[in-house]
Amino acid sequence: MNARFACVISCEHGGNRIPARYAASFQEHLHVLNTHRGYDHGALALARTLARALDAPLVAATVSRLLVDLNRSPAHRQLFSSVTRGQPEAARRAIVERYYVPHRQRVEAEIARLAADGRRVVHIGVHSFTPRLRGVSRHADIGLLYDPGSLFEAALCRAWKEAFRRYAPRLRVRRNYPYRGTSDGLTRTLRRRFGLQRYAGIELELNQARVLSDPKAYAVLCKEIADCIRRGFDKLARGKLLQ
Hints:
Layout (H helix, E strand, L loop, with lengths): L4 E7 L18 H4 L9 H12 L3 E3 L28 H27 L4 E10 L2 E2 L2 E2 L4 E4 L5 H17 L5 E3 L10 H9 L4 E9 L7 H24 L5
Parallel strand pairs: 1-2, 1-3, 3-8, 6-7
Antiparallel strand pairs: 4-5, 6-8
Helix pairs in contact: 2-6, 4-6
């Protein structure tokens, strides 16, 4: 992507698939699978568009977060949902080994491969969020989650926000909203694993109110978002703040 940095795209909550061996446990919870609790609406389509626009590898998962949450640390209390938390320990261990570990290993492997030639790797984890949670409305279309302690991550998110302001001004973009970029998640784990000089982890959060029912219109929106992300990369590459 650039002589000085490379990019990896991941999507941890791309679908609401429940493997056949666990289907019986979810018979009474099928209605939840199609909600924001089951998966991130629109995230996979956006991740695919970004990967194409940035010529970046994509690591995506379609198993429902209600089976196991691929964006949580192994010891996190929300790694398993209320449906799977009560499974026997052996069953939970099997879920982790079959679905959780392989996804995270694939993301790590892509980062390590691209970092091998000395470039810093920018990892974009693509997610979406419900416009209203526990009675509180979320006032943003796009959230950029990053570690304020990383000068590179902060500069990149500023460049992206400026690109959205110039080229897609109708989209409201906020940094570290609706969550903090330092909260438990895959990017935080990988910052510790690779270090801030080799790795930058950004979570791109899209408001699900923007996930339109018209697939063609949503595809246009995804391309518009990807174009702003690419322009932000280009601007940063021309600048000097790459430390």
